Amino acid sequence: MPNRNTNTALSLFDDSLPQQQEFLADVLEGLAQPRKTLPCKYFYDERGSQLFEAICETPEYYITRTELGILTQNMEHIANLVGPGCDILEFGSGAGIKIRLLLDGLHDPRSYIPIDISREILESSARTLLEQFPQVQVIPIVGDYHKDIQLPAAFRAQSAHRKLVFFPGSTISNFTPEEAEAFLQRIRALLCEGDGLLIGVDCIKPTHILNAAYNDLAGFTAAFNLNLLQRVEDSFNTNLKTKHFFHHAYFNEAESRIEMHLVSKLDQLIEIEGRHFKFRKGETIHTENSYKYSLEGFGALAQRTGFEISAVWQDPEKLFSLQYLSAR
Ligand SMILES: C[S@@+](CC[C@H](N)C(=O)[O-])C[C@H]1O[C@@H](n2cnc3c(N)ncnc32)[C@H](O)[C@@H]1O
Fold it and tell me: Which residue among 51, 70, 116 has the greatest number of ligand 1 atoms within 8 angstroms of its CB, and so is best to mutate?
């Protein structure tokens, strides 16, 4: 096998990472809304990424172990659909656990481009992959996937090799259905006819399973949610106290989504860099959504965005789906 990582030192390509000014502008804008909100992309500083990894290990958070099981069970079928010698791009690659199964199971993948907003986790996972898969060229990009990211040559539209976008973990669930549609269109634009998108999509299921998954007894999800406020407290000139808020997550059936909120424990006036925000006791900051899809609902979304569904795999309990969409 050729060693495609001729330069063994890791180069991290920086692209469009939100800077402190942008973080502040987003915080001020979110808290000025009639229903206060903060963007979920700011969960993932170093501590946030570590907390997310801890969430994945909890008994209540079925998503990670279920998707890993589906990937393992169906790897041969996936490898045959993707074909030999592909270039892979992953959005929100995180700790890079799932990609290891793909790099092991696909037929001679050529390159892997992980994109993540969290520099530390991207750097450490890319280092591990470089060691474990010397035959695959690893090109990590630290950046915000909501923005236009300059992609390496392997992933430009005119490439002669099969391209595969990997988007696991149901990260697509953090987008509203309108945003999800626009994002799938963006992915489609990166692909040529016959290229693939392997995407993890969480399914509608009984409410008690969903509520438990986002309220683990060990408290990692609560700590993850509160860490966003801690980041604000640590980054700016503010009287905000994270301890004056608590975590609240529940399934909103009408919207088919888990909502995560931070609830104010008291009436308070918070100042951030000279701007003031009034909170009533019980008022919340909406921090994240996680939409749950029926197979038909997601299928329709895929169809509308230029994909054809080639395969859908589920676990026996039908908690989660992994779907292979081919660019039409
Ligand atoms: C729900 S986790 C999923 C991680 C991993 N793909 C998995 O399946 O377990 C979301 C990942 O996306 C990254 N992320 C979140 N928002 C992002 C953004 N706007 N741009 C790039 N990466 C982002 C986070 O740092 C995190 O690694």
Answer: 116
For residue 7, what pLDDT is reported? 45
Domain ranges of the chain: 56-205+292-327
- The CATH homologous superfamily of the domain defined by 56-205+292-327: Vaccinia Virus protein VP39 (3.40.50.150)
Contact 304, 282 (CB under 8 A): no
The predicted-structure confidence for 228-250, as pLDDT tens digits, reads as follows 999 999 999 999 999 999 999 99
Instruction: Enumerate residues lining ligand 1, CB below 6 A.
Output: 41, 44, 49, 52, 64, 92-94, 98, 115-118, 144-146, 168-169, 171
Q: What are the two backbone dihedrals, phi and then psi, of residue 178, each rounded to the nearest 5 degrees?
A: -65, -45
Pairing of the two strands 137-138 and 163-167: unpaired
Separation CA 61–CA 47 (nearest Å)? 19
Give the position, in ligand 1's atom list, of the atom nearest the Cα of 48: 25
Is the whole model's pTM more than 0.90, yes or no? yes
E strands, 3-96, in order: 13-15, 87-91
